[in-house]
C-alpha cells in the first residue's frame, strides 16, 4: 500500500487548520490515526457519524472533521450515539470522549452501551486528569499523582478502563497510546469492522497539565516528546514478555546527581545508566546491565535512592484485550419490533 502525503488527509478530511489544540497535544495524533483508518477501509464520509461530548477530546471531530458530527452535552455522547445508531443502523457511529466525559459523568452510559453490545465505536482519550478545566483529579488519575485538587498526591485509585469495559460486556476492547500510532490505526480499523460495542482507550499527552501531573521540569517545547517517550517507557505489549535486563533507580533528590553516582558505582560492569521519565515514578535512572543482580547489589549500597524497581513495576499494559462475537443490540431490537408488528 502506498503511503499518502499528509496534505492528502488534510484536504480530504480536515475542515479547520490549524487545529484548536494546544501545541503538542495528542488529539491531533489521534485524529490523524482515525482519518487514516477510515481512508484505508474505504468508508465513504457520508456513512460516518462522529459524536462527541464536552472536553478537549470533543474537538477531535467537531469542528475539525469534514463530515457529519454531533457535538452533544457533557457525558451524554454515548447516549446520543445510541439514538443515532438505532435510527440508522447502517452508519459507522464513532464516539470521541475523554476520561472525564466518558468515564466520569458519562460512565453510566459507557457501561450500559457495552452491556447492550450496540454497534458503536468509542475512542476514549485518557490524559489522566480533567485537563480542559484546570487539571483536576479524574477517574483515571494514577494514585499519588499531583493535580490541582490533589497538590500532595491523589489518594484515590483509578479505573482500569479496559477491564471496566470488558466486564460490562464490550466485545472489542483495546488500549494504546499516542506513541503506538501504527497499532492505534490498525485497532481503529478493527473496531470499525467489528459488529458490536468497541472500546479503545488512548493514553494521550497533555503538556499543559501533565507538566504538573508528572512533575516534569525543563523547557515547555520538550514536554510533548518527553511524555510520548514516557508512554513508550511505561507500557508493555499484551502477551509479550518484557525484553532486556534492566531496573529503575528511584532518586530521593536530584536525578542528575543520582545518575552520576550510579554511573560511578557501575563503572567496571557491563552496564549503562540514563535518565528516563516513567509514568508511575517520574524522573528515574534506568540501568541496563548484563549482571543485573550484581548491579542491584551495588545500587542498594548507594545513598540518595528511594528504592529500586524492576522492569515491570508500574507499567501499563497495551494491546487488544477482548475480541469476541455476541448478538448486537440493534439487530436484537429489530427482531423484537418485528415480533411486535406481527403479533395479532
Characterization of this structure:
The chain is α/β, with parallel strands linked by helices and 344 residues long. The protein folds into 2 domains: 244 residues, Thiamin diphosphate (ThDP)-binding fold, Pyr/PP domains (Rossmann fold, 3-Layer(aba) Sandwich); 72 residues, THUMP domain-like (Alpha-Beta Plaits, 2-Layer Sandwich), CATH 3.30.70.1510. The strands form 2 sheets. It has an 8-stranded mixed sheet with strand order 2-1-3-4-6-5-12-7, with helices on both faces. Strands 9-10-8-11 form a 4-stranded antiparallel sheet. Helix 7 links the parallel strand 5 and strand 6. It is elongated and about 85 Å long. The termini are far apart.
Instruction: Indicate the CATH class of the largest domain.
Output: Alpha Beta
Total strands: 12
Distance between the termini: 56 Å
**Uncertain residue ranges:** none
CATH topology of the largest domain: Rossmann fold
How would you summarize this macromolecular structure in one to three sentences?
The protein is of the alpha/beta class. The chain has helices at residues 6-13, 27-41, 77-87, 99-103, 107-116, 161-168, 181-193, 207-213, 223-233, 255-265, 292-300, 329-342; strands at residues 48-52, 68-71, 92-98, 121-126, 172-177, 198-203, 235-237, 246-251, 271-278, 282-289, 305-310, 316-323. The chain has 2 domains: 6-233 and 317-332, Rossmann fold; 243-314, THUMP domain-like (Alpha-Beta Plaits), CATH 3.30.70.1510.
